[in-house]
Automatic annotation (TrEMBL):
Transmembrane segments: 106-130, 142-163, 195-216, 228-247, 331-352
Topological type in the membrane: Multi-pass membrane protein
Name of this protein: PAQR9 protein
Pfam families noted in UniProt: HlyIII (PF03006)
Keyword Membrane: yes
Length: 362
């Protein structure tokens, strides 16, 4: 009858809907323990939460919302990446640094510095997110991660050399000569060593960046006994390029003359010391292995404190830029800023390529 016809039609329609319905999404892959993954993938004192090797890119992307031991490693640098994108966008594109256009030569060091900060966070996120694609890609991503940290360190030196160092009494030949005469009673012309420092600071920083990257890539070798300590020490070396600011606070009254630089500079180094402590000690997971596999392990804390250190650094670099725009002492050039960054990029690419071509680093 008519009712039966309507019923059969409804059933056919329902069957058609079932055929057209999308298949259910694949279930997330089960997480593994430390003894179920290759030795190179095992992190000290982290017992569980590992993703399987040879995940697809789609699975890697989906894992940012799953409780793996890499999830918060990703988010603790992805959120800062978005924050710094917003901040540098305001400074460089929305004239937040003063009434100067984005292509003004005075902003060249800031462009270099911004590229270093953003690249560091972006590369860290990429390395932690896609490290389980394959062993070779894992090595590639972490080599690039080390290279990006060196790139950032050099970019910081570029910003310092234009926005911060020229205003220091330590690098003023007249002020230093008077200081030496008053404290030591010596008649000493400090113009030559100061001029030499100004000429050599960027080439030396570039050489340090390349050397540090090579050392950190080498630390991934199986024969390296303390890789985290080596990397922490190596990446502390470029911080020596900021020694003039430390000496300024010891020899001259930096706290009174530039309180913003004094407070944020030393607070940044406090955050860096805390970050280094967690990175080397592997606390808290060393104390209770397995308890902090997903939330609270040392690498996550290391990420948080490095973010805080860079946040403070951005603050005093921005303040230095504001002072520089009032009375620029030396106009930045493309060769002295972007040119150096491009040269460093080529050098770092050569280092990374060399280590990828070496099968056994021991």
């Amino acid at each position: 009858g008519p009712g039966a016809g309507r019923g059969s039609s409804s059933m056919r329609a329902a069957e058609g809907d079932k055929e057209e319905a999308a298949p259910p999404p694949p279930r997330p892959a089960a997480l593994l323990r430390w003894d179920e993954v290759p030795e190179d993938f095992v992190e000290c004192f982290i017992l569980s939460g590992y993703r399987r090797l040879h995940c697809s890119a789609q699975e890697c992307l989906a894992s940012v919302l799953q409780p793996t031991n890499e999830t918060l490693n990703f988010w603790t640098h992805f959120i800062p990446l978005l924050l710094f994108l917003s901040r540098f966008g305001r400074l460089l594109l929305l004239r937040g640094a003063g009434d100067v256009p984005f292509n003004h030569p005075a902003l060249l060091p800031l462009w270099c510095y911004a590229s270093g900060v953003l690249l560091t966070f972006a590369m860290s996120c990429t390395a932690h997110l896609f490290s389980c694609l394959s062993p070779r890609l894992r090595a590639t991503f972490f080599y690039l991660d080390y290279a990006s940290i060196s790139y950032y360190g050099f970019a910081s030196t570029v910003a310092y050399s234009y926005y911060l160092l020229p205003g220091l009494s330590l690098l003023d030949a007249g002020a230093m000569s008077r200081y030496v005469q008053q404290r030591l009673g010596w008649q000493l012309d400090c113009s030559l060593p100061i001029a030499a420092y100004r000429v050599l600071v960027l080439p030396v920083a570039l050489a340090l960046a390349v050397g540090c990257t090579a050392a950190c890539c080498r630390s991934r070798a199986a024969c390296c006994a303390y890789p985290f300590a080596v990397r922490t020490f190596v990446f502390a070396m470029p911080l020596s390029m900021a020694c003039p600011i430390m000496l300024e606070s010891l020899l001259f009254d930096l706290r009174a003359r530039n309180p913003t630089l004094f407070v944020y500079f030393y607070r940044r180094y406090f955050w860096l010391l805390v970050a280094a402590f967690f990175n080397v000690s592997k606390i808290p997971e060393r104390i209770q292995p397995g308890l902090f596999d997903i939330v609270g392990h040392s690498h996550q804390l290391f990420h948080i404190f490095t973010f805080l250190s860079i946040y403070d650094q951005v603050h005093y670099v921005e303040d230095g830029l504001a002072e520089f725009l009032k009375a620029p002492l030396a106009a930045p050039t493309y060769l002295g800023t972007v040119g150096y960054m491009l040269l460093l990029t080529v050098c770092l690419a050569v280092v990374v390529r060399r280590f990828l071509n070496v099968a056994d680093l021991c």
